[in-house]
């Protein structure tokens, strides 16, 4: 190797800076010379008088190592770390080591994070004097290098000797919450202290700018992010992350409950979508005996209701007279106890008149069974776990109102043709735990879901099953084992356009959504969802809640009965077993898994389709020359093909399937249909002019199947060519 300067007569590598100069050309060609570079580094260290001091000379003499990523300095440092393991005799101790540690500390303040751990290991900084290390970190902090001070503290494990508020506050103001989490991660005591600090920031009247004034000149300071809502979110996220008792943060809890109160008033008095009973249950559950929340409740009642109502709630909550506004206190004196009791349970007079507009359970009330003991559930399982049985399943849980995590299931509803079972899941699980048979109930639930001979109906089963898993850990894999499941949400998606049209036709009523909309379309009337936001944890359940829960599960059976009579109108195959899937929440599984090919989608991206279907035409054709008529259960497919430039006619919902054959003969179109209509229409047109589409797939997969079969070649110029 070439050497220059007045040290050319010295042995190669004896001067660390000459070694560095030798390595730099190899580093620029590191992809080709990586092995040679490593060999040269190790040979150089072997010839240095003091490799540890030599590394510091090289780092101090070159600034190339300060950038992010893998630098030459990083490469040299990590090679030395490995080389020392093979040559432990080069390790230093005593005064010599302390001098090296003093030098490396000044480098640590500037070096990238990937160099910290190797340097700390090489120079044994964990054995250094703790006070000396703390002084160095304090010096960094006082210079305004808060991030660097925190990172070094974490790597040197100094947190237990520092003030968590002092170290974390500037980081929080700079929106470096991830670094704050790392700082306290392995220290439960510091986690609690941090949460207590954040909770004081949630106090009424607290102004974050009072804190920022202590850190004048703080770069990238973002105090506006610390409003009470954001602070509360941060506190609850950290409570969940560190598994700390929420009681440690009373101010954050109060702020969240206050937001819940405001939301409940909005739902009840602005949207008017919550019944008096539900609203009252949630208000009582939210406010409890908290005097601060009671005060806000009274103010909200004055704003949204009237003084007598505010006075009745003040009496109900035993709010001290000195806490009440004078006008409420005066009103309280006028109230009679009997009037107060009557008003407290009063429901809106128009509730009963609305019932005739909603879906009604067709079974007697006596056939709805609320089960709270294992003995009571025996009759349920004996009837449910029968081969060939069809059951509707739904679940209810207390609304979370933004709280962290999935709420546990409070009620499991299982509907059969003649009766409905409502399982009090918390009570049953508690009883099983007490009796030492906690696996008994999960075992039967898993039997139900895994039995392919029992048809399970649900609506949005994915969410229900994830809540079930959150309720009982023994049920966490239920979704993976599920067989014989029909998720009506997936069926609903295939009819969404028709459902929306149905609602537009009934413009006098607020538009329904979800299962309620499907029930309205299929059975004629929507579900009454006023009990949806009930407090499902409170016992006993009210009669309205029991009827609502039973209806939610039973209506699935009636929808399924309609589907069985005319599956094609729901976009399903005449063989409904094709739509039963192993995993709920996943799109219905096709009978044949299609091989994949790349075809442009309307977005211009590449998507995958079938190559298993054989093409009926040897010569490729352009989309503009391909003319089809889509049956009315394939409206989504028709729109998709039109986006790809295909000449498409689509039957209206009220059109008879046979109209497709008339259009096909008159205009020379290919019929695209599915299920039973295919057999009828196939005989009315020439061979090869009627094609059956798999209705269990989405429009994109259906389109790809059609394009492949008829050898239609789509180019980017065709996409949206027929759209205005």
TrEMBL record:
Keywords: Exonuclease, Hydrolase, Nuclease
Alphabetized Gene3D superfamilies for the sequence: Ribonuclease H-like superfamily/Ribonuclease H
Stored InterPro entries: 3'-5'_exonuclease_dom, Exonuclease_MUT-7-like, Mut-7_DEDDy_dom, Mut7-C_RNAse_dom, RNaseH-like_sf, RNaseH_sf
Phosphoprotein among keywords: no
Domain 3'-5' exonuclease: start-end pairs: 368-568
Region (Disordered): 593-614
UniProt-recorded Gene Ontology molecular function terms: 3'-5' exonuclease activity; nucleic acid binding
SUPFAM superfamilies associated with the record: Ribonuclease H-like
Biased composition (Polar residues): 600-614
One of the Pfam families matching this protein, by short name: DNA_pol_A_exo1
One GO term (biological process): nucleobase-containing compound metabolic process
PANTHER family: 3'-5' EXONUCLEASE DOMAIN-CONTAINING PROTEIN, EXONUCLEASE MUT-7 HOMOLOG
Name of this protein: Putative exonuclease mut-7
